[in-house]
Amino acid sequence: MLTILQKEFNAFLNSPVAYVVIGVFLVATGLFVWVFPDSSVLDYGYADLQSLFNLAPWIFLLLIPAITMRTFAEEKKAGTIELLLTRPLTDGQLVGGKYLACLLLALLALVPTLLYYFSVYKLGSPAGNIDSAATVGSYLGLGLLAAVFAALGVLASALTRDQIIAFVLAVVACFLVYTGFDSLASVFDGAPAYYISQLGIAAHYRDLSKGLIDSRDVLYFLTVVAVALLGTRLALRSRNW
Prior knowledge:
Blueprint: H1 2-13, H2 16-35, H3 41-44, H4 50-68, H5 73-78, H6 81-86, H7 91-110, H8 114-123, H9 132-158, H10 163-185, H11 190-197, H12 201-209, H13 215-238
GO molecular function, one term: ABC-type transporter activity
Pfam families: ABC2_membrane_5
Keywords: Cell membrane, Membrane, Transmembrane, Transmembrane helix
């Protein structure tokens, strides 16, 4: 699995994909956090990064499927998937290596945003006047969100040999899991609305963003990842290409 991970990650770094993804993410978040007056930290008057954590999931919703769309679809179209399957690799190792490479690239895009936190930390009055617990929870939530989106993207890529179809399927799946249950919950009132919203990512992401790291929220994200990767393994086993 580590060999597959290294091969896939190096392939990203040797192509424009990694630099386009990181560049687009940083430009978009930078504009909203520092430039646009409606969301700029400088105009908002409070030392927090809520605009970053509100926007990042929507950018990931498009960028992560762009990363994952080639994982299996390209292999199938080129016919190299058969060579991979004849290697002494289990389906789990193959899926895990490709998935972790995609996730690592998505997480790499988050690393430069730590400069945003450092800047807001220093700009606070007094310095350090920022809710660090909420910031840590939000970063954890973004990491787990990226993990779910990457797992859904890899699953979508395993279902087709066309990268564009894989991209569209992944975007739709990520959108439905992220915001679909919240939209459905708005139709109901009381307990049904609460339980329906808990089926989606947004509710758990909001909880983590408050700085309350609950094991139930973390377990939810890990469960969705496990189910998506299991679906990917089943798609590979079907061999119906």
